[in-house]
Amino acid sequence: MKVKNICCIGAGYVGGPTMAIIAQKSPEITVTVVDINEQRIAAWNDPDVEQIPIYEPGLSEVVAEARGRNLFFSTDVDAAIDAADMIFISVNTPTKTYGMGKGMAADLKYIELCARQIARVATTDKIVVEKSTLPVRTAEALKNILDNTGNGVNFQILSNPEFLAEGTAVSDLHKPDRVLIGGDLDTEAGREAIQALVAVYAHWVTKDNILTTNVWSSELSKLTANAFLAQRVSSINALSELCEVTGADIQEVSKAIGMDSRIGPKFLQASVGFGGSCFQKDILNLVYIAKSFGLHEVADYWEQVIIMNDHQKRRFAAKLVKTLYNTVSGKRIAMLGWAFKKDTNDTRESASIYVADYLLNEQAMVVVYDPKVTQEQILADLDYLGTRSEAENRTLIKVVNSAEAACEQAHAVALMTEWDAFKSLDWNSIYDQMLKPAFLFDGRRLLDRKVLEEIGFDFYAIGS
Ligand SMILES: NC(=O)C1=CN([C@@H]2O[C@H](COP(=O)(O)OP(=O)(O)OC[C@H]3O[C@@H](n4cnc5c(N)ncnc54)[C@H](O)[C@@H]3O)[C@@H](O)[C@H]2O)C=CC1
Ligand SMILES: O=C(O)[C@H]1O[C@H](OP(=O)(O)OP(=O)(O)OC[C@H]2O[C@@H](n3ccc(=O)[nH]c3=O)[C@H](O)[C@@H]2O)[C@H](O)[C@@H](O)[C@@H]1O
């Protein structure tokens, strides 16, 4: 079977970029990305392609090439489902905030709504692809809903988790380490569905890099990949604290261990803690699944990755307060960077949110600058924590539009996101504008200690 018409439900950080690349590379396939969020769809359709709702290097060029040709964004979910022979589900799967599994399990209500909508609308056979990250065995529930409430239509369910990282989404999608497709290998129809999706990716990915497995392996591999990646960050961050008390330097340790080809150099960058919408959510989900099978040692093992990450964020904030003579009350603290990593405007679970919250509890006056994050977003992130009233957040935090403005008259600077532009700031002039002693806390190991100390900063960097 040759796929001619794809629908993707969910026009977010995954649905948008993933479908843009599929459309770019497969001009003969019509790709329609649908979402219930009208504002988001309007932004994807903005005539000025720079206004698309997600900032990713290279993405606006891809959208400009394919949009209106074979890539469409719409709020008419029913029509797109009906027309498609393959439907990707790419909706959010956040951590549950209520009921059983609160704070750990993935909330699958959006997934289930999609399945019910597909079942209601579909009049022809469909291949339904899980693109969202889901707990192992979700495909079973999806199949159940589709088969029992459908219109006698045949559904094949595939798992095709996404491994792109934000900030590098376009290059990750153009050159994936692998594409993973899980399906029903035991039936002819299942194998055909798998091959239909393989053929879509084969437009630009070599067959050797397209891996096919059973559905459960595919679902579990996604959670496992994120858990392994996050575990590396927590491992190196755990050692960054040991470096600080022993005189070892975490950059040197990372390099030394990363040159062992069995360990490898990537993902060993000490930081103020990992953020992003997925690592924490997916590990909590893994922990919950393990617990639900009674595998308590397995659950505890993975939970430690989160415990360590929370500690790292708190430890950074506490170090700042302690260094500023144990009080930041009424002191101006500049925070450079709010996004959870460079080259994205995404702030979900960013370490900055938690460090700012800690400093606000200590009555600091926090002044934030991020090149891609709006004031509205920063305030919304703080309000979401619910630590204090919205009015108080607005009194205590200020958002400015340059790094220099943030640092003016500040007692300390906390460098939170590794934006390249922060490396080339005029640190001499920033130093002149700050109160003395001028403290600089590098949560990303971005800056050169020697240079900053020569300027006069009291310099602290994670892991040394
Ligand atoms: N953000 C990332 O870098 C990655 C995310 N993932 C996974 O992909 C999934 C989606 O993540 P994001 O794109 O970041 O989420 P997102 O929150 O940016 O986008 C999800 C979109 O789905 C829409 N939606 C929800 N229910 C809907 C419905 N019933 N009908 C139509 N639209 C609906 C929402 O309005 C929203 O725009 C999650 O499971 C996530 O774990 C996987 C790999 C990378
Ligand atoms: O499922 C997902 O959502 C995605 O999660 C991560 O991608 P992402 O969160 O976008 O970005 P990463 O580059 O993994 O960074 C995550 C966090 O870890 C931090 N990090 C990363 C690497 C490192 O060495 N040190 C470190 O502190 C980053 O600054 C960031 O806060 C994975 O890398 C993707 O493969 C996966 O698809």
TrEMBL record:
This protein's UniProt keywords: NAD, Oxidoreductase
One GO biological process term: glycosaminoglycan biosynthetic process
GO molecular function terms attached to this record: NAD binding; UDP-glucose 6-dehydrogenase activity
Membrane spanning stretches: none
Top enzyme class: oxidoreductase
Protein origin, superkingdom: Bacteria
Function: Catalyzes the conversion of UDP-glucose into UDP-glucuronate, one of the precursors of teichuronic acid.
Family matches, as NCBIfam families: NDP-sugDHase (TIGR03026)
Family (UniProt): Belongs to the UDP-glucose/GDP-mannose dehydrogenase family.
UniProt-recorded name of the protein: UDP-glucose 6-dehydrogenase
